[in-house]
Amino acid sequence: xxxxxxxxxxxxxxxxxxxxxxxxxxxxxxxxxxxxxxxxxxxxxxxxxxxxxxxxxxxxxxxxxxxxxxxxxxxxxxxxxxxxxxxxxxxxxxxxxxxxxxxxxxxxxxxxxxxxxxxxxxxxxxxxxxxxxxxxxxxxxxxxxxxxxxxxxxxxxxxxxxxxxxxxxxxxxxxxxxxxxxxxxxxxxxxxxxxxxxxxxxxxxxxxxxxxxxxxxxxxxxxxxxxxxxxxxxxxxxxxxxxxxxxxxxxxxxxxxxxxxxxxxxxxxxxxxxxxxxxxxxxxxxxxxxxxxxxxxxxxxxxxxxxxxxxxxxxxxxxxxxxxxxxxxxxxxxxxxxxxxxxxxxxxxxxxxxxxxxxxxxxxxxxxxxxxxxxxxxxxxxxxxxxxxxxxxxxxxxxxxxxxxxxxxxxxxxxxxxxxxxxxxxxxxxxxxxxxxxxxxxxxxxxxxxxxxxxxxxxxxxxxxxxxxxxxxxxxxxxxxxxxxxxxxxxxxxxxxxxxxxxxxxxxxxxxxxxxxxxxxxxxxxxxxxxxxxxxxxxxxxxxxxxxxxxxxxxxxxxxxxxxxxxxxxxxxxxxxxxxxxxxxxxxxxxxxxxxxxxxxxxxxxxxxxxxxxxxxxxxxxxxxxxxxxxxxxxxxxxxxxxxxxxxxxxxxxxxxxxxxxxxxxxxxxxxxxxxxxxxxxxxxxxxxxxxxxxxxxxxxxxxxxxxxxxxxxxxxxxxxxxxxxxxxxxxxxxxxxxxxxxxxxxxxxxxxxxxxxxxxxxxxxxxxxxxxxxxxxxxxxxxxxxxxxxxxxxxxxxxxxxxxxxxxxxxxxxxxxxxxxxxxxxxxxxxxxxxxx
Length: 838
Description:
This protein is mostly helical. Helix content is 76%, strand content 4%. It is built from 34 helices and 8 strands. The chain has a 4-stranded antiparallel β-sheet with strand order 1-8-3-6. It has a 4-stranded antiparallel β-sheet with strand order 2-7-4-5, with no helix packed on it. The termini are far apart.
């Protein structure tokens, strides 16, 4: 009982201290982990140095200090209690859709960074080992590589926090977060392999080690993906059951780690990361918005506790660890620091430019790359892996001592040297300063805000009969100061050009666009899947403006309407295997996205006239509205093409949007009545029950029928009109229905023909060389027969002008039909002769 009380006292006391550190870190301008490590080292010194504490302090304080000193944190506790929470919480907060855009660069950067750091730092220490201890052995090399793998994992929290404060491109922030997430996994897998080689005592088999690395990594991905999707399926019926939904995600984090690591012998770290990413993506669409908000808060709290406690307990071991340091340890530490920084610089300055050059990443300035290099802090994961080595009974004491001292010293260097100098470095690089354009925007926005505040204050004073002079005079003085600042700015840098003001307007709209999508989701108007897609695009628009200006903004906006990877995959499955459900679901998602985008663009047009025009001027506002109008025109055209093919479905989607908006307004009105005491709690509960029932009726989006039933499509082709039901049934069995998108190429000139296409609905353009305009074919027409009958390559490109429902007849069946039915043969021959003579 006493042991339990002391443990609870230690944990509760430490959590109490931890709660005071975030505001202290913000006030000091230091990363939170630096302040946390300082507290842990301080407690460790207090415990290590002194028995005098008990004599000077009595009561609960003494009990707390003794309890903290008696807590033993093992590596098993870290791996099985804290690590799943840390990894799952990090993965859950990742914007998966944005990360998938850069998954290749992220994986490349993460795995290469780990391998380069391990090899460069490992061989550097091995060389120093040889200088200090004589001829270095193969075992010494494994020890040095093990040391390097422990510190290969980075903590991105400090850099990401600073990048967000600086307004760095979001793609850069996601690149840093994703790299850290996967290099944690890669580093721990590599550490496990090297530790196994070291403890086995045999000669290392590099081929087997490489295979084991790949097997554990891919196996972890498979386990995490499978469990994540099973959880997403199970959580769907639990919708609006917040406690059950959150509990299920906690179970997922631990089960994915334990099943992968302990039972399947693959990487539990990778499994947890992938499971968290699956829930961050699929779970968002299956868990209610209210529950997801609570889930994020719970996991944020769990992550904060786990990170804080593991860091504190690990930092408390620093003083006794460093007491046994020798000069040889400091030599290895110096080599490790220099080599690790050099390896990180090589990756950041070597690989990132290549990724930018091939278009896999935005161009990143040298100043940001310097911050990424210097900001590679190490934290709890490195300390815990070192702890795992010191607890390994089969390793000699000198190995445990080397690992403990060198890793601890390296972590302290990154925290107390790199961490404390990170913001001063940013000031030296002038990354924290507003550009002249941003300063001008700040002055204009603040001036407009002061003007609005002054007007509102005058209204309030008039309404209540108060003297507003005391409040208005300071506003007028501040306004005069801003005007003078603006004059000084213009005299130094010149007045804002039209391009600058257009840039400011587009940047403002991109941020506002993202806010509107989030507001639509909170109001229940759009689904979480739609808000993820649209908010990700708004984020890409912001990044494009920062890296490429207005031209890049226009390019990204145009790319938004192209079919995405998921839709292209669904179309491939439809054409390959005839599966309609995936493409139907993706098309429904696309239609919902286009409808929400149209709503938002109209709001942005209104916002530009009401809010941006007074701040940027009429000319700049018109230029901005021109770009918005161009975007809106394209969206309207896309929706019109949908309406032509699926009018009933589009009407159902838009009606559902309006019904949802009405229900949300009714919900707010009801809540307002209760807050004004016009209705009782009992009446409010009854009204809310009725609202929930009506929400259920519109919670599922309408289903899209692609209209690809062959027996219906064949009836729209005049060529088959008049055939007997028996003959029609025979032909129907030969035809395959397919759906094509506007602008999609159906047939390419020069390819071998193997199919005839019958247009059941829609229209296509046949691009024939030598003709000024393409030939347009519509419902009832067919194409592709010339290449089959004359046995020659295709002589034209054919593209879809709208959503086209086609019936496909392959070459073998066409030849049978052509040779076995004189009436159809005559029809085909007539069409061929007419087209060749045109």
